[in-house]
Write a structure and sequence with these properties.
Layout lengths: L1 H25 L14 E3 L1 E3 L2 E16 L2 E5 L4 E6 L8 E2 L4 E5 L2 H40 L14 H26 L2 E3 L4 E6 L6 E2 L4 E7 L2 E9 H4 L4 H5 L4 E9 L2 E16 L5 E9 L17 E18 L3 E2 L3 E5 L5 E5 L1 E5 L3 E6 L6 E3 L12 E3 L2
Parallel strand pairs: 1-23
Antiparallel strand pairs: 2-22, 3-12, 3-16, 4-11, 5-7, 5-10, 6-9, 7-8, 9-11, 12-15, 13-14, 13-16, 14-15, 16-21, 17-18, 18-19, 18-22, 20-21
């Protein structure tokens, strides 16, 4: 009996506990339920403003000189002297002496040529005198009726005189040549410029045609700017073809500083590049190294610059950030209920930062600038700020 109670009592206790728990669950009060609204998405917005737009075409390129030269020797000899400016990066003015080749051999040749000219002039004077004597002799013979008929050119020594004159002309030409060779021993700057690379120095023997230096002019800098076929319609190429110019701003960062330079597009190269299908236009800037000391940063050759070319006017358009467009032509507008609605807009042009719209959004409407993943019409938003 005791053993049976030990089995029954635990089972009865468990059953009673289950029944009591079930009764408590059935009699518990009902929990009140409240509707939970979806959280509004926080977005950044901007206001659409229709304004006159002047298109800007952007490009990039390297600054290069308009005129660059490889200086070569026109005579042979040992370099006897170089200018202090004849170093890589040295500035020089037009007419400055850059290199002097030892002139002594050429001076000797000039002296010899001058002596030959003097000798030839003496020969001409002698033949003139002899021709005069020959004419006088012929006149006397004619008076004695010994000479009949006109005097021949040989009798009057005209061939001998012509030969002497030709010899003089030849010697004078030779003198001009050797004097020019002597002048060429001094190599002078052909323009205001800078030495890019020095290839010869004092004591070096150079032959005719030997390269001495690479130089470039500093009056103008040029930048070849590629323009795509898509962007060409926003430039006034007709103005360039008629000899006009287009304003352009060149920009570059040097260290932690940003610099801008005003320049002008003066021409197009007129032929599309076969590989890249772009047309190059050429921008020019005067005095890139600021030799006039106008207190601006020099635009050094080889600088990589970005260019903003002033293009054609686009009329009254709305400029919006490019990332504000969804699928390229959809702009999400915020209505009075703080919900977003899609608008299909007309896109005239897009650049790296902006899209220009000519329809689909009204002036003063608020649009979303924050890219939204999977936006839906009627989605509630909160406006940042």
């Amino acid at each position: 009996m005791t053993r049976l109670l030990k089995i029954i009592l635990p089972v009865a206790f468990i059953v009673a506990a289950v029944v009591a728990s079930f009764a408590m669950i059935q009699t518990r009060p009902e929990t009140p339920k409240e509707a939970v609204s979806k959280p509004a998405l926080l977005v950044s917005v901007a206001t659409a403003r229709r304004e006159p737009i002047e298109f800007v075409v952007r490009s990039r390129g390297l600054v290069s000189p308009r005129t660059q030269t490889t200086l070569v020797s026109e005579v042979s000899g040992q370099i006897a002297e170089v200018s202090p400016a004849f170093v890589s990066g040295g500035f020089f003015a037009r007419g400055d002496m850059l290199i002097r080749i030892d002139p002594r051999n050429y001076e000797t040749v000039v002296k010899r040529a001058r002596a030959e000219v003097a000798k030839a002039r003496t020969g001409v004077a002698t033949e003139n005198a002899l021709a005069g004597y020959a004419f006088e002799d012929w006149e006397r013979l004619r008076e004695l009726n010994t000479a009949t008929g006109p005097a021949s050119e040989l009798t009057l020594r005209k061939p001998q005189l012509q030969e002497a004159l030709a010899e003089l002309e030849s010697k004078e030409a030779e003198l001009e040549k050797v004097e020019e060779d002597l002048r060429r021993t001094v190599i002078r700057a052909p323009y205001d410029g800078m030495v890019r690379e020095k290839l010869a120095d004092v004591g070096q023997y150079v032959n005719v045609g030997a390269q001495l230096a690479r130089t470039f002019a500093v009056d103008l800098a040029e930048v070849r700017l590629p323009v795509t076929q898509k962007d060409l319609r926003f430039l006034d190429l007709g103005k360039l073809d008629a000899g006009g110019e287009l304003p352009v701003v060149l920009s570059a960062s040097i260290g932690d500083q940003h610099f801008d330079w005003e320049a002008r597009v003066v021409r197009s190269e007129g032929v599309f590049d076969a590989s890249s299908r772009v047309l190059y236009v050429v921008a020019q800037m005067n005095d890139p190294y600021d030799l006039a000391d106008s207190k601006r940063e020099p635009l050094r050759m080889g600088t990589f610059v970005t260019a903003a070319i002033t293009g054609l006017p686009g009329g009254e358009l709305v400029a919006v950030p490019r990332h504000a467009l969804s699928r390229g032509t959809t702009l999400w507008v915020v209505d009075a209920n703080s919900t977003i609605q899609p608008r299909t807009v007309g896109v005239v042009r897009t650049d790296e930062d902006l899209a220009y719209l000519d329809g689909g959004v009204a002036d003063g409407e608020i649009y979303v600038t924050t890219p939204i993943d999977h936006p839906l019409p009627g989605m509630r938003v909160r406006l940042d700020g």
